């Protein structure tokens, strides 16, 4: 059984990823993977597999099959994020269409730069600590 806190984190990830997907066209890998890793301590592969599960039918059915065979998908997490991702996507697209595309571009760039920096530092720290 999942704790209420875990469910709330998963709902937040789904809504955030959905809102950003609808808002700037991102969500899966750039939001869900780091969110699962940093907020719930999932492994890189577990987070990737669960993120692909969320996008299973439209994007990654063959990739999900590989992660499933390797035991790297958390199905419960994926279902909660997928349901809330749909809701967030609706909200994000509504917000995005109400503001200047230049503001959307700026927000997209900031999100991408932040996530890139976090992953670069995480990879560098992992290499230097081995």
Number of helices: 6
- Largest pleated sheet: none
Give the amount of beta strand, in percent: under 5%
C-alpha geometry? globular
Distance between the termini: 35 Å
- Please tell me how large the radius of gyration is: 15 Å
Order of helices and strands: HHHHHH
State the low-pLDDT regions, or none. Answer: none
Count structural domains: 1
Please bin the fraction of helical residues. Answer: over 70%
Mean pLDDT: 84
Structural class: mainly alpha
The number of strands is 0
What does this structure look like?
The chain is mostly helical. It has one domain. 84% of the residues lie in helices and 0% in strands. The chain has six helices and no strands. It has helices at residues 4-24, 28-40, 44-54, 56-69, 75-96, 101-128. It is globular and about 45 Å long.
Keywords:
mainly alpha, 6 helices
Give the topology, please.
Blueprint: H1 4-24, H2 28-40, H3 44-54, H4 56-69, H5 75-96, H6 101-128
Helix pairs in contact: 1-2, 1-5, 2-3, 3-4, 3-5
Question: In summary, what is this structure?
Answer:
The protein is built from six helices and no strands. With 130 residues, it is mainly alpha-helical.
């Amino acid at each position: 059984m999942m704790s209420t806190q875990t469910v709330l984190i998963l709902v937040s990830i789904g809504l955030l990823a959905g809102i950003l997907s609808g808002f700037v066209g991102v969500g899966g890998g750039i939001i869900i993977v780091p969110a699962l890793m940093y907020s719930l301590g999932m492994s890189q592969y577990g987070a990737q597999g669960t993120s692909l599960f969320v996008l299973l039918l439209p994007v990654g059915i063959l990739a999900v099959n590989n992660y499933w065979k390797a035991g790297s998908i958390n199905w419960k997490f994926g279902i909660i994020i997928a349901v809330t991702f749909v809701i967030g996507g609706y909200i994000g697209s509504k917000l995005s269409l109400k503001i200047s595309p230049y503001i959307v571009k700026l927000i997209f760039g900031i999100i991408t730069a932040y996530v890139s920096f976090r992953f670069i530092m995480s990879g560098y720290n992992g290499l230097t600590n081995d």
